[in-house]
From TrEMBL:
One of its GO terms (molecular function) is carbohydrate binding. Pfam families: DctP. It comes from Anaerosporomusa subterranea. This is C4-dicarboxylate ABC transporter substrate-binding protein. InterPro entries: DctP_fam, TRAP_DctP, TRAP_DctP_sf. One of its GO terms (cellular component) is outer membrane-bounded periplasmic space.
Length: 337
Protein backbone atom coordinates (compact mmCIF):
# COMPACT_ATOMS: atom_id res chain seq x y z
CA UNK A 1 0.00 0.00 0.00
CA UNK A 2 2.78 2.39 1.00
CA UNK A 3 4.55 1.55 -2.24
CA UNK A 4 1.47 2.41 -4.32
CA UNK A 5 1.10 5.71 -2.46
CA UNK A 6 4.75 6.55 -3.02
CA UNK A 7 4.43 5.83 -6.77
CA UNK A 8 1.29 7.97 -6.96
CA UNK A 9 3.02 10.86 -5.18
CA UNK A 10 5.96 10.56 -7.54
CA UNK A 11 3.62 10.68 -10.53
CA UNK A 12 1.86 13.80 -9.20
CA UNK A 13 5.24 15.40 -8.61
CA UNK A 14 6.33 14.64 -12.18
CA UNK A 15 3.12 16.08 -13.63
CA UNK A 16 3.59 19.31 -11.63
CA UNK A 17 7.20 19.64 -12.80
CA UNK A 18 6.15 19.04 -16.41
CA UNK A 19 3.39 21.61 -16.03
CA UNK A 20 5.83 24.24 -14.80
CA UNK A 21 8.14 23.52 -17.66
CA UNK A 22 5.25 23.94 -20.07
CA UNK A 23 4.45 27.34 -18.62
CA UNK A 24 8.02 28.42 -19.13
CA UNK A 25 7.92 27.47 -22.77
CA UNK A 26 4.66 29.47 -23.29
CA UNK A 27 6.12 32.66 -21.83
CA UNK A 28 7.10 35.26 -24.42
CA UNK A 29 10.72 35.40 -25.49
CA UNK A 30 12.78 38.21 -24.00
CA UNK A 31 11.79 41.63 -25.44
CA UNK A 32 9.00 40.20 -27.56
CA UNK A 33 5.47 40.84 -26.44
CA UNK A 34 2.58 38.52 -27.18
CA UNK A 35 -0.09 40.87 -25.88
CA UNK A 36 -3.26 40.63 -27.91
CA UNK A 37 -6.46 42.65 -27.63
CA UNK A 38 -9.59 43.76 -29.42
CA UNK A 39 -10.65 47.19 -28.26
CA UNK A 40 -13.79 49.26 -28.65
CA UNK A 41 -13.56 52.93 -29.67
CA UNK A 42 -16.72 55.01 -29.43
CA UNK A 43 -18.19 58.51 -29.59
CA UNK A 44 -21.62 60.08 -29.74
CA UNK A 45 -20.95 61.23 -33.30
CA UNK A 46 -21.64 59.59 -36.65
CA UNK A 47 -19.16 57.64 -38.79
CA UNK A 48 -18.64 60.69 -41.04
CA UNK A 49 -17.67 63.03 -38.16
CA UNK A 50 -13.92 63.79 -37.81
CA UNK A 51 -13.89 61.97 -34.41
CA UNK A 52 -14.67 58.71 -36.13
CA UNK A 53 -12.52 59.45 -39.21
CA UNK A 54 -9.68 59.97 -36.73
CA UNK A 55 -10.73 56.77 -34.97
CA UNK A 56 -10.55 54.84 -38.25
CA UNK A 57 -7.04 56.18 -38.92
CA UNK A 58 -5.97 55.29 -35.37
CA UNK A 59 -7.33 51.74 -35.72
CA UNK A 60 -5.54 51.28 -39.05
CA UNK A 61 -2.17 52.49 -37.70
CA UNK A 62 -2.40 50.48 -34.47
CA UNK A 63 -3.18 47.30 -36.36
CA UNK A 64 -0.22 47.92 -38.64
CA UNK A 65 2.18 48.88 -35.86
CA UNK A 66 1.32 45.92 -33.63
CA UNK A 67 1.34 43.45 -36.53
CA UNK A 68 -2.34 42.78 -36.01
CA UNK A 69 -2.03 41.94 -32.29
CA UNK A 70 -4.29 44.85 -31.35
CA UNK A 71 -7.40 45.55 -33.35
CA UNK A 72 -9.82 48.39 -32.68
CA UNK A 73 -13.49 48.29 -33.61
CA UNK A 74 -15.42 51.53 -34.10
CA UNK A 75 -18.82 52.23 -32.58
CA UNK A 76 -20.22 55.58 -33.79
CA UNK A 77 -23.55 57.20 -32.82
CA UNK A 78 -23.55 56.36 -29.09
CA UNK A 79 -23.82 52.65 -29.89
CA UNK A 80 -22.20 51.62 -26.60
CA UNK A 81 -23.48 54.24 -24.17
CA UNK A 82 -26.26 56.79 -24.27
CA UNK A 83 -24.27 59.98 -23.77
CA UNK A 84 -20.78 61.36 -23.23
CA UNK A 85 -21.05 61.14 -19.43
CA UNK A 86 -22.07 57.49 -19.69
CA UNK A 87 -19.14 56.79 -22.05
CA UNK A 88 -16.69 58.16 -19.50
CA UNK A 89 -18.25 56.09 -16.72
CA UNK A 90 -17.92 52.97 -18.89
CA UNK A 91 -14.24 53.81 -19.47
CA UNK A 92 -13.70 53.99 -15.72
CA UNK A 93 -15.26 50.55 -15.37
CA UNK A 94 -13.35 49.21 -18.36
CA UNK A 95 -16.43 48.17 -20.36
CA UNK A 96 -15.49 50.62 -23.14
CA UNK A 97 -11.82 51.00 -24.06
CA UNK A 98 -11.37 54.23 -26.01
CA UNK A 99 -13.46 57.37 -26.25
CA UNK A 100 -13.33 60.66 -28.15
CA UNK A 101 -15.60 63.50 -27.12
CA UNK A 102 -15.78 67.17 -26.35
CA UNK A 103 -14.97 68.51 -22.89
CA UNK A 104 -18.69 68.96 -22.11
CA UNK A 105 -19.07 66.42 -19.31
CA UNK A 106 -15.32 65.82 -18.79
CA UNK A 107 -15.27 68.64 -16.24
CA UNK A 108 -17.45 66.48 -13.99
CA UNK A 109 -14.59 63.94 -13.86
CA UNK A 110 -11.56 66.21 -14.04
CA UNK A 111 -12.44 69.82 -13.15
CA UNK A 112 -9.22 71.38 -14.48
CA UNK A 113 -10.27 70.52 -18.04
CA UNK A 114 -13.07 73.11 -17.87
CA UNK A 115 -10.55 75.92 -18.34
CA UNK A 116 -10.62 75.21 -22.09
CA UNK A 117 -14.35 76.04 -22.10
CA UNK A 118 -13.87 79.72 -21.33
CA UNK A 119 -15.45 81.81 -24.10
CA UNK A 120 -13.02 83.38 -26.58
CA UNK A 121 -9.98 81.90 -24.79
CA UNK A 122 -8.35 80.64 -27.99
CA UNK A 123 -7.65 83.05 -30.84
CA UNK A 124 -7.40 80.53 -33.67
CA UNK A 125 -6.26 77.04 -34.67
CA UNK A 126 -2.56 77.89 -34.38
CA UNK A 127 -3.08 79.12 -30.81
CA UNK A 128 -5.02 75.95 -29.97
CA UNK A 129 -2.25 73.71 -31.32
CA UNK A 130 0.50 75.51 -29.41
CA UNK A 131 -1.38 75.36 -26.09
CA UNK A 132 -2.84 71.86 -26.27
CA UNK A 133 0.29 70.22 -27.72
CA UNK A 134 2.52 71.97 -25.20
CA UNK A 135 3.01 71.58 -21.43
CA UNK A 136 -0.37 73.16 -20.56
CA UNK A 137 -2.27 70.60 -22.63
CA UNK A 138 -0.16 67.73 -21.29
CA UNK A 139 -0.91 68.76 -17.70
CA UNK A 140 -4.66 68.82 -18.43
CA UNK A 141 -4.47 65.31 -19.91
CA UNK A 142 -2.38 64.05 -16.99
CA UNK A 143 -4.99 65.36 -14.53
CA UNK A 144 -7.39 62.77 -15.99
CA UNK A 145 -5.21 60.02 -14.43
CA UNK A 146 -6.83 60.66 -11.05
CA UNK A 147 -10.25 59.68 -12.44
CA UNK A 148 -9.33 56.31 -13.93
CA UNK A 149 -8.98 57.84 -17.40
CA UNK A 150 -5.80 58.02 -19.47
CA UNK A 151 -5.81 61.03 -21.79
CA UNK A 152 -3.56 60.37 -24.76
CA UNK A 153 -4.02 63.43 -26.96
CA UNK A 154 -6.28 66.31 -27.88
CA UNK A 155 -8.22 65.61 -31.01
CA UNK A 156 -10.78 68.25 -31.86
CA UNK A 157 -14.42 69.04 -32.20
CA UNK A 158 -13.71 72.62 -33.31
CA UNK A 159 -14.81 76.20 -32.77
CA UNK A 160 -18.48 76.28 -31.78
CA UNK A 161 -21.08 78.47 -33.47
CA UNK A 162 -24.60 79.52 -32.56
CA UNK A 163 -27.49 78.26 -34.69
CA UNK A 164 -31.25 78.72 -34.46
CA UNK A 165 -34.54 78.39 -36.31
CA UNK A 166 -35.87 81.93 -35.84
CA UNK A 167 -33.62 84.76 -36.88
CA UNK A 168 -30.26 85.77 -38.41
CA UNK A 169 -28.22 86.57 -35.30
CA UNK A 170 -25.16 88.83 -35.49
CA UNK A 171 -25.14 90.29 -31.99
CA UNK A 172 -26.14 89.08 -28.51
CA UNK A 173 -28.90 91.68 -28.68
CA UNK A 174 -30.42 89.89 -31.70
CA UNK A 175 -30.19 86.58 -29.86
CA UNK A 176 -31.84 87.88 -26.72
CA UNK A 177 -34.19 85.37 -25.10
CA UNK A 178 -33.47 82.60 -27.65
CA UNK A 179 -33.96 79.24 -26.00
CA UNK A 180 -30.81 77.29 -26.77
CA UNK A 181 -29.34 74.00 -25.68
CA UNK A 182 -25.81 73.92 -24.27
CA UNK A 183 -23.78 70.88 -23.27
CA UNK A 184 -23.88 69.85 -19.63
CA UNK A 185 -21.16 72.39 -18.96
CA UNK A 186 -21.48 75.17 -16.42
CA UNK A 187 -19.02 77.52 -18.15
CA UNK A 188 -20.98 77.46 -21.42
CA UNK A 189 -24.20 77.91 -19.52
CA UNK A 190 -22.87 80.97 -17.68
CA UNK A 191 -21.49 82.48 -20.91
CA UNK A 192 -24.85 82.35 -22.71
CA UNK A 193 -26.74 83.60 -19.66
CA UNK A 194 -24.37 86.56 -19.48
CA UNK A 195 -25.05 87.25 -23.17
CA UNK A 196 -28.81 87.43 -22.54
CA UNK A 197 -29.86 84.16 -24.19
CA UNK A 198 -31.92 81.51 -22.48
CA UNK A 199 -29.66 78.43 -22.29
CA UNK A 200 -30.62 75.02 -21.00
CA UNK A 201 -28.22 72.05 -20.55
CA UNK A 202 -29.14 68.86 -22.37
CA UNK A 203 -27.43 65.60 -23.31
CA UNK A 204 -26.48 65.12 -26.95
CA UNK A 205 -29.02 62.38 -27.61
CA UNK A 206 -31.96 64.64 -26.79
CA UNK A 207 -30.84 67.50 -28.98
CA UNK A 208 -32.11 66.65 -32.48
CA UNK A 209 -35.65 65.75 -31.34
CA UNK A 210 -35.78 68.90 -29.17
CA UNK A 211 -34.86 71.04 -32.18
CA UNK A 212 -37.26 69.17 -34.42
CA UNK A 213 -40.16 69.54 -32.01
CA UNK A 214 -39.18 73.17 -31.41
CA UNK A 215 -38.91 72.64 -27.66
CA UNK A 216 -35.84 74.86 -28.09
CA UNK A 217 -34.92 77.44 -30.76
CA UNK A 218 -31.27 76.67 -31.17
CA UNK A 219 -28.00 75.13 -30.15
CA UNK A 220 -24.26 75.67 -30.57
CA UNK A 221 -21.77 73.30 -32.15
CA UNK A 222 -18.93 73.19 -34.66
CA UNK A 223 -19.65 72.86 -38.39
CA UNK A 224 -18.82 69.14 -38.55
CA UNK A 225 -21.25 68.18 -35.77
CA UNK A 226 -23.98 70.32 -37.34
CA UNK A 227 -23.52 68.86 -40.83
CA UNK A 228 -22.93 65.20 -39.92
CA UNK A 229 -25.95 65.18 -37.58
CA UNK A 230 -28.04 66.89 -40.32
CA UNK A 231 -29.08 69.78 -38.08
CA UNK A 232 -29.70 71.85 -41.25
CA UNK A 233 -32.97 69.90 -41.47
CA UNK A 234 -34.20 71.55 -38.27
CA UNK A 235 -32.21 74.82 -38.08
CA UNK A 236 -32.29 77.76 -40.50
CA UNK A 237 -29.61 80.22 -39.27
CA UNK A 238 -25.95 79.49 -38.64
CA UNK A 239 -24.03 82.41 -37.06
CA UNK A 240 -20.23 82.09 -37.16
CA UNK A 241 -19.74 83.21 -33.55
CA UNK A 242 -16.78 80.91 -32.79
CA UNK A 243 -17.55 81.69 -29.14
CA UNK A 244 -15.66 78.76 -27.70
CA UNK A 245 -13.19 76.16 -28.90
CA UNK A 246 -14.16 72.58 -28.25
CA UNK A 247 -11.20 70.24 -27.78
CA UNK A 248 -11.83 66.50 -27.86
CA UNK A 249 -9.61 64.58 -25.46
CA UNK A 250 -8.86 61.10 -26.79
CA UNK A 251 -9.07 58.88 -23.74
CA UNK A 252 -8.36 55.24 -22.97
CA UNK A 253 -9.66 53.36 -19.96
CA UNK A 254 -6.97 53.36 -17.25
CA UNK A 255 -7.74 49.70 -16.53
CA UNK A 256 -6.98 48.79 -20.15
CA UNK A 257 -3.98 51.09 -20.26
CA UNK A 258 -2.39 49.45 -17.24
CA UNK A 259 -3.00 45.98 -18.69
CA UNK A 260 -0.93 46.86 -21.76
CA UNK A 261 2.83 46.23 -22.03
CA UNK A 262 4.96 49.36 -21.99
CA UNK A 263 5.99 48.97 -25.63
CA UNK A 264 2.35 48.99 -26.72
CA UNK A 265 1.58 51.96 -24.48
CA UNK A 266 4.30 53.82 -26.34
CA UNK A 267 2.82 52.89 -29.71
CA UNK A 268 -0.61 54.11 -28.56
CA UNK A 269 0.70 57.40 -27.16
CA UNK A 270 2.71 58.22 -30.27
CA UNK A 271 -0.07 57.22 -32.67
CA UNK A 272 -2.74 59.19 -30.79
CA UNK A 273 -0.64 62.36 -31.15
CA UNK A 274 0.01 61.72 -34.81
CA UNK A 275 -3.69 61.22 -35.48
CA UNK A 276 -4.46 64.43 -33.54
CA UNK A 277 -2.62 66.43 -36.20
CA UNK A 278 -4.29 64.47 -39.01
CA UNK A 279 -7.75 64.73 -37.50
CA UNK A 280 -7.55 68.47 -36.73
CA UNK A 281 -6.42 69.24 -40.27
CA UNK A 282 -9.21 67.14 -41.71
CA UNK A 283 -11.74 68.97 -39.56
CA UNK A 284 -10.47 72.45 -40.38
CA UNK A 285 -10.09 71.77 -44.10
CA UNK A 286 -13.67 70.53 -44.40
CA UNK A 287 -15.46 73.45 -42.68
CA UNK A 288 -15.83 75.97 -45.52
CA UNK A 289 -16.80 73.34 -48.09
CA UNK A 290 -19.37 71.92 -45.72
CA UNK A 291 -20.90 75.37 -45.03
CA UNK A 292 -21.22 76.00 -48.78
CA UNK A 293 -22.94 72.65 -49.28
CA UNK A 294 -25.42 73.42 -46.52
CA UNK A 295 -26.08 76.89 -47.97
CA UNK A 296 -27.06 75.03 -51.11
CA UNK A 297 -29.64 73.20 -49.03
CA UNK A 298 -31.14 76.47 -47.76
CA UNK A 299 -29.14 77.16 -44.58
CA UNK A 300 -28.50 80.86 -43.96
CA UNK A 301 -24.87 81.27 -42.88
CA UNK A 302 -24.38 84.55 -41.01
CA UNK A 303 -20.73 85.44 -41.63
CA UNK A 304 -20.59 89.08 -40.51
CA UNK A 305 -21.08 88.34 -36.83
CA UNK A 306 -20.14 91.13 -34.41
CA UNK A 307 -17.46 89.22 -32.47
CA UNK A 308 -16.49 92.15 -30.25
CA UNK A 309 -20.08 92.40 -29.01
CA UNK A 310 -20.09 88.69 -28.11
CA UNK A 311 -16.71 88.91 -26.36
CA UNK A 312 -17.95 91.87 -24.32
CA UNK A 313 -21.28 90.22 -23.47
CA UNK A 314 -19.63 86.99 -22.30
CA UNK A 315 -16.85 88.75 -20.38
CA UNK A 316 -18.58 88.52 -16.94
CA UNK A 317 -18.72 84.71 -17.26
CA UNK A 318 -15.11 84.65 -18.43
CA UNK A 319 -13.99 86.73 -15.44
CA UNK A 320 -16.01 84.72 -12.92
CA UNK A 321 -14.60 81.38 -14.07
CA UNK A 322 -11.08 82.67 -14.76
CA UNK A 323 -10.97 83.54 -11.06
CA UNK A 324 -12.09 80.01 -10.13
CA UNK A 325 -9.63 78.25 -12.44
CA UNK A 326 -6.78 80.57 -11.45
CA UNK A 327 -6.07 83.82 -13.24
CA UNK A 328 -2.39 82.81 -13.64
CA UNK A 329 -3.39 79.64 -15.53
CA UNK A 330 -5.75 81.56 -17.81
CA UNK A 331 -3.12 84.24 -18.44
CA UNK A 332 -0.57 81.54 -19.29
CA UNK A 333 -2.90 80.25 -22.04
CA UNK A 334 -3.61 83.76 -23.34
CA UNK A 335 0.13 84.51 -23.40
CA UNK A 336 1.00 81.59 -25.70
CA UNK A 337 1.95 83.10 -29.07
O1 LIG B 1 -18.60 65.69 -28.59
O2 LIG B 1 -22.86 67.45 -27.25
C1 LIG B 1 -22.26 68.22 -28.02
O3 LIG B 1 -22.76 69.26 -28.43
C2 LIG B 1 -20.85 67.87 -28.46
O4 LIG B 1 -20.33 68.86 -29.28
C3 LIG B 1 -20.85 66.55 -29.09
O5 LIG B 1 -21.35 65.63 -28.21
C4 LIG B 1 -19.45 66.14 -29.56
Amino acid sequence: MKKVLAIMLLLVFMVVIAGCGGDKKAAPAEGKTEFKATMKLTSTQSATHPYMLGGAKFAELIKERTNGRITITLYPDSQLAKGERECLEALQQGTIDIYVGSTGPVGGFSPSMLITDLPFLFRDGAHVDKVLDGPIGRALLDDLDKSGLKGLAFWENGFRHLTNSKTAVKTPEEGKGLKIRTMENKVHLAAFKAAGLNPTPMAWGELYPALQQKVIDGQENPVAVFSSAKFYEVQKYFSLTGHVYSPAPMIISMKKWQAMPKADQEIFAKTALEVAAYQRKLNRDSEEKSLKEMEGKGLVVVRDVNKDAWIKAMQPAFDEYAKQFGKDKVDAILAVK
